[in-house]
Design goal:
By secondary structure, this protein is an alpha+beta fold. The chain has one domain. It has helices at about 1-10, 15-70, 80, 130; strands spanning about 95, 100-110, 125, 140-145, 150-155, 160-165, 190-200, 205-210, 220-225, 225-235, 250-255, 270-280. The strands form 2 sheets. Strands 1, 2, 3, 4, 5, 6, 7, 8 and 9 form a 9-stranded antiparallel β-sheet that branches. It has a 3-stranded antiparallel β-sheet with strand order 10-11-12, covered by helices on one side. A hairpin with a 3-residue loop joins strand 4 (about 140-145) and strand 5. The longest helix is centred in the N-terminal third of the chain and has 54 residues, at about 15-70.
Length: about 290
């Protein structure tokens, strides 16, 4: 009887405290290793996502800026640049600086002609009064008709604009056979603007900023762009600071990630990328069509 009881007790014997502690230690080591792998993968993903966002951010911003710089001078802006105050204070199609640039051109089409505009007359009719209203203030009075001549608006009556000077040429909305042109074929009406690009702070972060010089101040175009540099070249690809000689502009932009990485031991923990692009100017030095 006693023998059977002893045998049963031996069979029912549980895990010892030492065995339990060893199992807990091994489990802890495995969990810690898995956690480190997970954290490492998560950090790698976060870094890659931030770098991708940074690269996409700077590409989109630079693309928009390059598009407008390439259009500088569009609309034969020489007539409005010759005014005493130029276009909102700027009398050159390009005002070059190392870390900023101001460009003047008909960057935005706001309407088309809705009626023939005769040479030596000083009135043009736009498609709608809403379109005409975009030239309603002193800072927004600069206009290009047909992309071939520029002028300033002195008054608005519905869709009809009165210009400061008579037109130099006739702009027609019919072809040579007298057929009415479609709206997209009619002479375009462009709004001439002076736009400044530079870098500054926005919400505590570095940003590429765009200023239309109409009193609203510089607005952020893209965050986390720390620096932008411009270099200017003439038709022979020689460096120049003379606005009238500039035919190519080289833009170099430096961007950073949105957040610093404490494990990134270079500098302040921000990863950075630099993008350089060359812009050939299409409308500078060309005679109006």
């Amino acid at each position: 009887m006693n023998l059977n009881i002893n045998i049963k007790l031996k069979r029912d014997k549980g895990v010892t405290l030492i065995e339990l502690l060893i199992a807990l230690v091994i489990s802890g080591i495995l969990i810690a290793a898995l956690y480190r792998i997970f954290i490492g993968q998560q950090r790698t993903y976060t870094v890659q996502e931030q770098v991708a966002d940074m690269q996409q951010n700077v590409r989109v911003a630079i693309s928009k800026m390059m598009r407008e710089i390439r259009m500088v001078g569009l609309g034969n802006v020489s007539d409005v640049l010759s005014l005493a105050s130029g276009v909102n204070g700027f009398t050159q199609a390009i005002t070059p600086n190392n870390n900023s640039i101001t460009i003047v051109g008909g960057f935005r089409q706001v309407s088309t002609l809705a009626a023939d505009a005769a040479g030596d007359q000083n009135k043009v009719t736009l498609t709608s009064a809403t379109d005409a209203a975009q030239f309603d203030t002193d800072k927004h009075r600069f206009i290009s008709i047909g992309g071939t001549e520029s002028n300033t608006v002195t008054s608005i009556n519905g869709a009809v604009l009165t210009l400061n000077n008579p037109l130099k040429r006739t702009h027609k909305i019919t072809d040579r056979w007298g057929n009415l042109l479609s709206e997209r074929e009619r002479p375009p009406i462009l709004k001439i603007q002076a736009i400044t690009y530079t870098c500054g702070k926005s919400g505590g972060k570095p940003a590429l900023r765009r200023d239309e010089n109409t009193g609203g101040g510089a607005q952020p175009l893209a965050e986390n762009i720390e620096n932008i540099e411009f270099a200017y070249f003439d038709a022979s690809d020689n460096p120049t600071a003379n606005p009238s000689d500039i035919r190519k502009i080289r833009v170099t932009a430096k961007a950073r990630t949105d957040m610093s990485d404490p494990d990134y031991k270079s500098g302040d923990g921000y990863r950075r990328r630099e993008i350089m692009s060359n812009i050939q100017l299409r409308n500078i030095g060309l005679a109006p069509p």
